[in-house]
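Notes from the pairing session

We agreed to fold both candidates in a single pass and log them together. This is the raw record for the first candidate, unedited. Please don't reformat it; downstream parsing expects exactly this layout.

Candidate A
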Amino acid sequence: MMQNFDQMYRNTVLSVSGNRNIEQLVRTKGWAVAQRFVAGDTLEEAVKAVDDLESIGVHGILDLLGEMVTSEAQANGFAENILAIFDALERKGYPIYVSLKLSQIGQDITLGNGENLGMVNARRILTRAKELGGFVRLDMENHPRVDGTLEQFRVLHGEFGDTVGTVLQSYLYRTEMDLFELSDLKPNLRIVKGAYLEPASVAFQNKADVDAQYRKLVFRMLERGQYVCVATHDASIIEEVKAFVEKHGLSRDRFEFQMLYGIRRDLQQSLARAGYTVRAYIPYGRDWYAYFSRRIAERPANVLFVLRGMLKG
């Protein structure tokens, strides 16, 4: 019963978030609240968030927010701003680790010479990342984009190797097969449950099914010796992963825990203190609304948090 409520809640929030009036209201009055989940508007603010996390042993993953760009100039602008992240992190001496969406750097744009702008910009970004010993994660978007993203990832992995990784979402029926089909690459994968509004024709709708699939994917990667990023705040799953690793005598350098900025900092810190690699996904930038909506959809308590904050504003 509770799982049905959680799914109804999530679907409702993601559905109404597409309403322009709701978006305008949240953009006007919700920024102060959004800063719980978003580090700020600027790269400087994002680097300060990295400073704060590094002080407790947690590394940062910087993500300049933006998606589904249709302008060539805007896509190139995103690429330049992502390249600037590398310089900022290098100056600090921090691990260079960036997440991006191919749709923000031109995945939907074909140039006059027939090249895909997303691939052109991805190659620019990955060339610089490889020079600096950095890492770039290609984020996964909604299900119509999975094929294109995985196809482009395979090409880029062939050119740049372990400088690039991607994401698989456990709520999609197809993901177990996607993991199998990527196995020849032995790629660095981030396993998430999934945050988009997806229909029952392509995605599990029951939380228990999503969680079971999540465990299956993570344990399968650990068994195969593939590097896996366990991206969850679910303490029970984290404890199961820790127990699985200990039982099978697996090295801690074959996996890491990843969580979101502003969520379960206490858990992040305790895992880091226990000697696990932990990274926090730090989003920043002005295009924060879509990301913020997905965070609100994750827990009913988040809506109350937002409403209280907006009423104070």
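Candidate B (folded immediately after A)
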Amino acid sequence: MATWPQRYPDESCISLGEYLRTSYSPDCEYVDGRVVERCVGEKGRSVHLGYFAFVFMLHRDEWQVEVFPTLRTRVSRTRVRVPDIVAVRKEAKFGPILDVPPLVVIEILGSEITLSELQEKIGDYLAFGAENICTLDPIRRRAWPAGTDGLHPVESGVLSVARTPIRVVLSEAFAKLVRGL
């Protein structure tokens, strides 16, 4: 079995333009000239991605956000990430790929994501200017917001975004998801 990240079609570099003109199924990321597969297709990740995207969509007017699951996000000149969920402020303007820093980035852990890969993605989001980054673990039913000083577990049980009305009670969210797992 191949380990993630799998690079294809081979180890040769491609241009950003070629990557942006190409469709991958499932979509891949672009890291310094290489096309990199994302961890997708696991039931727990899928259920959580759907649920959290739904919660953000349900509250989008109240929270003044637009939410996008798996939207290509150009985090630098040479990198395009595909976060599990991004939420941007309602007034944000961008084209077919996100090229403005999002309000919220959510990454959902899967069995093949390593800590170093997660740290690299978080570093990209921070350097890009993402205001809030959160990692969800569907197995342990935990969440960790990330900052320049690392990951910190949500101790209050509420995933919240400073200076916004965004609040997700994790125990309620995870309890509702048990049926789907």
